[in-house]
């Protein structure tokens, strides 16, 4: 394959959408796989809707995901003159023409064509063959005009071989002479996009199927501009369970990459999830390292049909697609603990839970405690919420744990302080001794050991379930364990 040059050209009119991120990821994977280049181009031509905030958000989102680019960011507006020059060239070389028809003329013709039930109701080509004199006359009269592309009057069809969808064609005679420059002199996005892709020597265009309405016209533009047509690969859309496109308006923040950043996702876990929304390895594998994914990624394995984002609004169990949560949990449990430590550090700093000693003399303790508690966790947030009792004293015990393990036993208000006194008296507070004392106390009080142990778990860790009780006691440490057991009455 000759040099692979792909691009990600977001329009900066909002946050980085997970659909856009998925497109960026696939381009990135394809570039990496073929030792190619990924070009980042900000398509800011729509001045009314483009914002700096959106540009910053998109760049931050890509960086957070770990999607780096080789060139850019270029800004489409910087090339406005080139876009205009390309339109002039198309006119001067006979591939486009000035059209002086007014909106009223066009509306009236369209209505008449519809009334006559004509199969084609688009532009009828009135200005396609104006003579040079006629054009000069109209220009002298200052009649406003748009520039239309002159679709070749050929038999047959124009098309391209889509890497995902196969051959896509449209008969020449079904394509209207489409507008490429508005009456205010501004080239249409469809043309700017092609001019930029030619200048950036883009070899493959990997983008969403929502852009397919432009592709045939763009193929005609490439040909007219004398440039090689890139390879196209159109990715499926991502729909919700009701088959509607996922959007902020209907689904809220879950469609934005920053939502996942704010909800404790591991960047690569989100990349892994997003790739699987529209691409498949051909077997049931689900977890891929960056190297693996780069190696096995192919355009041919992009799914043809739309992918489903499994999200039910107001489902208290899942705040986003459960598969995304599950993949994140798998990473959380399997990643080297030092890497998890670095990610939790950022969370803790933001939460005010960070202690400098976690990077110093308590580093070992910090990492082994993370390792101990991570088993049931789903997001990085869980360390500061569910796992808070390991790192701070201001934790709120889970209500279901209090209900189940404390409320039923008023006596625990006396029994747990008794256990605290025994722990305090231990010269060697180790797992074995802690267990022996707890069991001994239960026996003396003629209680099932579970009453003491579950009560202790609730008071010391704040959770109904978690790692082995005695591992947890050791991680939390004697002083904190004793203080919490003594204070049990505060909780109910
Ligand atoms: N600027 C377009 C968008 O943000 C991308 C167009 C393209 O990929 O060709 O959707």
Can you summarize this structure?
The protein is mostly helical and 492 residues long. The chain is built from 21 helices and twelve strands.
Question: Mind explaining what this structure looks like?
Answer:
- With 492 residues, the chain is mainly α.
- The chain folds into 4 domains: 5-69 and 236-329, Rossmann fold (3-Layer(aba) Sandwich); 78-189, Glutamyl-tRNA Synthetase, domain 3, CATH 3.90.800; 336-387; 396-492, Arc Repressor Mutant, subunit A (Orthogonal Bundle).
- Helix content is 46%, strand content 11%.
- It is built from 21 helices and 12 strands.
- It has helices spanning 18-33, 52-65, 80-92, 103-115, 132-140, 189-199, 212-224, 248-251, 257-262, 267-276, 290-296, 322-334, 337-351, 363-373, 381-384, 399-406, 412-425, 431-444, 449-461, 469-476, 478-486; strands at residues 5-8, 37-42, 71-75, 96-99, 146-149, 157-162, 166-171, 179-181, 204-208, 231-235, 238-239, 307-308.
- It has a 3-stranded parallel β-sheet with strand order 1-2-3. A 3-stranded antiparallel β-sheet has the order 4-5-8.
- Helix 7 links the parallel strand 9 (204-208) and strand 10.
- Helix 18 (431-444) crosses helix 19.
- The longest helix is centred in the N-terminal third of the chain and has 16 residues, at 18-33.
- It is elongated, with a radius of gyration of 32 Å.
- The model has no long low-confidence stretch (mean pLDDT 96).
- Glutamic acid binds at residues 9-11, 43, 193, 207, 211.
